Amino acid sequence: MTIQNKLLHEILKGRDERAGEIKKLNEENLGNIICFTINIPGPYKLSDNYYFAFNEGVLALEEILNAKALKRIKRMSGFEAYFISDKSPIDLKKLTVNLEERHPLGRLFDIDIFYKNLSKISREQLSISKRKCLLCDSPAVECGRSRTHSVEELIICINKLINEYRENNLQEKYK
């Protein structure tokens, strides 16, 4: 098995494990489930830069939800955090979409809200437009499906976004 195939296998395994984690939390019936990951194309999802972006997202979510992450997991498929909330799924989706739209790293955030019956609430259900591509103005899902941009182009853009955010925050911290 090539390294690429092994990594792809690990990513698919991670998705299955994430679904299992969500199902387990649902069975415990603690409330609506918020699953947080970051959007990173390609097979390598565990760099220090990606962890930094993930951690910034977790901190921002903890602030808007007024709750600590229930669980954080590191898999080959990427970093994951889980939250539980009694707020309505629609209110949660509005809060999290607002975070995705307004946080400087929000374009990297992937925040899914699951009802107690495991159905997922989407942007479309709230008449909110699809997310835009990092590199152009088209819907991200269309660019991803048609492979309009290379993984390398996207990774360069993502790392630039994270590095600029880090630099700006460091400058703000020492003003």
From TrEMBL:
It catalyses: apo-[citrate lyase ACP] + 2'-(5''-triphospho-alpha-D-ribosyl)-3'-dephospho-CoA = holo-[citrate lyase ACP] + diphosphate. GO terms for molecular function: holo-citrate lyase synthase activity; lyase activity. Its EC number is 2.7.7.61. Keywords: Lyase, Nucleotidyltransferase, Transferase. It comes from Clostridium sardiniense. It is an enzyme of class 2 (transferase). This is citrate lyase holo-[acyl-carrier protein] synthase. It holds the Pfam family CitX.
